[in-house]
Design goal:
single chain; 294 residues; alpha+beta; D-amino Acid Aminotransferase, Chain A, domain 1; D-amino Acid Aminotransferase, Chain A, domain 2; 2 domains; nine-stranded mixed beta sheet
Length: 294
């Protein structure tokens, strides 16, 4: 991983003169780039600009900043770059940073831990400040339960989202998303999927659900890196072992090979749709995209 700091006076990136790993992360955003192509980069730009404004440095997020970010991203390979707002010391100066990171392996399914605890985040509505905490939770889930993700629960036991993912689930033909009042992080990928569903006249509803309520449904956890992933197993840290979501079962075949109500067909179709929505990152300008996508 390579890190650069943004020199706003000279509008260019510079290599840090000290270890920025000790600085405080106030905001962040990341996206997947495959062969120089990216999905909904404009929405990631907007989310990061909003988060930067929340911590008082929104004026640093300029056209020049984004143009320099794009210049740093290779046109080949798979990358998972991230932009940050960093604070040097508590109450000290705040700076923008760019991290060029190779994309980790992507998967289509995942095992999910239902934890004993409620959501421990301090700043759930802004990506960045709780990343280190969530990484520790994921490390524990992998080591102790062989799980890829951890659900984040409200004090009342409702599912808000995953540590690195947003929650979607199906109740028959209805696509369900968590009640906004639960306070999930605004998700670019989830928003794209919901919009695509609505263009196909799929009913979409906001609901509240506890972990046990997900067991009987097809469940997706989504993010910018993996796109859509199906939950293939729930592990309950409070006991009771693990369970496969019953909604994963493929329905009986009819004459059609593209049944909208078949969980597998539905998953493959929507996953392919959002993966095909990538356009060259160079086509994006700050606040808009030059060509239509999705």
């Amino acid at each position: 991983m390579t890190v650069w700091l943004w020199n706003s006076q000279e509008s260019r990136f510079e290599e840090p003169m000290e270890d920025v790993g000790m600085w405080t992360l106030l905001a962040a955003d990341s996206w997947l780039v495959v062969g120089g192509r990216v999905r909904t980069f404009d929405r990631h730009q907007a989310r990061f600009a909003d988060a930067s404004g929340q911590v008082g440095v929104g004026d640093l997020v300029t056209d020049e900043f984004w143009a320099s970010v794009v210049e740093k991203i290779p046109k080949t390979g798979e990358w998972f770059p991230r932009v940050d707002v960093l604070e040097t010391v508590p109450g000290g100066s705040r700076m923008l940073a760019f991290r060029l990171r190779p994309a980790p392996p992507r998967t289509r399914e995942l095992r999910v831990l239902i934890p004993r605890y409620s959501d421990p985040r301090n700043t759930p509505r802004r990506k960045g400040p709780d990343i280190a905490l969530l990484e520790r939770l994921l490390k524990q889930a992998r080591e102790e339960y062989d799980c890829d993700e951890v659900l984040l629960l409200s004090e009342d036991g409702y599912v808000i989202e995953g540590a690195t993912t947003s929650l979607l689930w199906w109740d028959g033909d209805t696509l369900c998303i968590p009640d906004p009042e639960l306070g999930a992080l605004p998700s670019v990928t989830s928003a794209v999927i919901v919009e695509e569903a609505r263009t196909r006249s799929v009913p979409v509803e906001h609901r509240r659900v506890r972990p046990e309520g997900l067991i009987s449904h097809e469940v997706w956890l989504v993010n910018a890196l993996h796109g859509i992933r199906r939950v293939n197993w729930f592990v309950n840290a409070q006991g009771g072992g693990g369970r496969e979501p019953s909604g994963r079962t493929r329905g009986p075949r009819t004459g059609s090979s593209d049944r909208a109500d078949d969980p597998v067909e539905r998953f493959e179709h929507l996953r392919d749709r959002i993966e095909a929505a990538r356009v060259p990152v160079s086509e994006f300008e700050w606040g808009r995209v030059k060509s239509q996508h999705l």
